[in-house]
Amino acid sequence: MNLHLEQISTAPLKIVGRLVDASNATLQAVIEDSDPLIKVIYKPIAGEKPLWDFEDGNLASRELSAFIVSDEAGFQVVPFTILRDGPFGIGMVQQWIEIDNKVDIVEFGQSEDKQLKRLALFDAVINNTDRKFGHLLLDDSGKLFGCDHGVAFHKENKLRTVLWQFAGQDFDQEEIDLLKTLLKTDWHEKLSAYLTEDEIGALNVRIQELFNQCKFPQPSLTWPAVPWPPV
User: Fold this and answer.
1) How far are the Cα atoms of 33, 40, 47, 96, 107 from residue 8, in angstroms, in the given order?
2) ∠ Cα 5 18 69 (to 5°)
């Protein structure tokens, strides 16, 4: 682990602001005495609101699980994320991404950029129920990240996303290789501390089904396919 990530993992946090549009406590913090200054997002478990359809676990553990899947399989679409202590107790701490404000993210999010395609596959794998345009982070170098994965990994298929432009398209070789890596990974070993057995079992089934079908899923006819609001 490089020094930057080690500091995010262990160094004291100082709260500097709050993202007021978030439904749960979402705080901007900095790593104390970091030079250059290291910014992070901190979501304490104590600030989470109960969700009727996600009865088990907590949002922070799902956020960490999303990072683990992204990192282990090679998607590289989730900023570095860890569960750790902070000023308001244990919570998710995630590397802050400085976005390119010159980009119209809604317009970009409706394009067929290859990075969006990879993120759409990732969302299908983790069963993301809340992929909004506002959860797309495009940095100054043009690298795309996704954030806010606290409502993912449900055992029932509940994919809700704004990235349906790839629906029905065949996977390319790179996407097939990602699925092969997912299939070879012991997700019980990686995620049992954060997700239920049913959720891990459903994850394995989704990966296998995606590999068998070899194409992007279609919107559900029985479940709302787009989160509201979509931005």
Assistant:
1) 12, 8, 20, 10, 32
2) 40
How distant is the alpha carbon of residue 112 from its chain centre? 20
CB 204 within 8 A of CB 185: no
> What is the distance between the alpha carbons of residues 159 and 207, in angstroms, rounded to a whole number?
14
Q: 127 and 206 in contact (C-beta within 8 Å)?
A: yes
Q: Looking at this protein, which amino acid is placed at residue 136?
A: L
Paired with 145 in beta bridges are 137
Rounded distance between C-alpha atoms, residue 183 and residue 208, angstroms: 7
CA distance 211 to 47: 37
Per-residue pLDDT of the chain (231 residues; tens, 9 = 90+): 687 899 999 999 999 999 877 778 899 999 998 889 999 999 999 998 877 677 778 999 999 999 999 999 999 999 999 999 999 999 999 999 999 999 999 999 999 999 999 999 999 999 999 999 999 999 999 999 999 999 999 999 999 999 999 999 999 999 999 999 999 999 999 999 999 999 999 999 999 999 999 999 999 888 889 998 898
109 vs 115: CA distance, rounded Å: 10
R_g of the chain, CA atoms, integer Å: 17
Contact 13, 86 (CB under 8 A): yes
